[in-house]
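Final report, Chapter 2: Outcomes

The project's central promise was a pipeline that accepts a single protein chain and returns its three-dimensional structure in a standardized token representation, suitable for archiving and comparison. That pipeline is now operational. To close this chapter, we reproduce one record exactly as it appears in the project archive, with the input sequence first and the structure output second.
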Amino acid sequence: MIVTGIISTLLHELGHCIFYWIQGIPAGMSLVMEFPLVDISARQYSIGSLGGPLVSIILFIGSWFMIRNSKKKSAKWNIFSAFLLANSFYLIFRSLLALAKNYGGEIESMMNLFGLNFYTAAIAFPVLAIAILILWIRKFNIRISLKNAGYYVLLFIAYMATILVMEEIDSNHFWGNFPSIQIEDWGIHNPHL
């Protein structure tokens, strides 16, 4: 689960970079952050912001399609169930964080492309995650018990701890290698302190 969480996080950041590269904008990534390497417009930032969550959603839904006809506890089932859980954790956590901060960050920027506010994604992401998790539970007869609930809560905590450790390593060792850039009508991305 921890390995799939790390891989999912790296693919999420790669998704941002791909959406910058498609626009002809040079970009790089670290463990938990993407970096456009030149000043950009707010629209270009919004398009780049779209790439990460889109990759997470594709990984999440793709994992379901990869396991829906698999044998429970097979190697394929275990791997893609871990990806399903890691990306559901991302969708739920990102939404809760946005609601707690009353600020959507990349989700808000992404939703601006569609004329929507971040509350739309902050509601849609967990609904999507919970709906597919219910399908997963029902399809594979995952027993709902206090013990299983505790196990999945511990997995969620382990996932969050892994992301926090990655962010700590990242901010201390890698973010300073990338330039601060201006995003029109938004501010500075990656300000160096």
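Archive annotation: The longest strand covers residues 27-29.
This record, like all others produced under the grant, will remain available to the consortium after the project formally closes.
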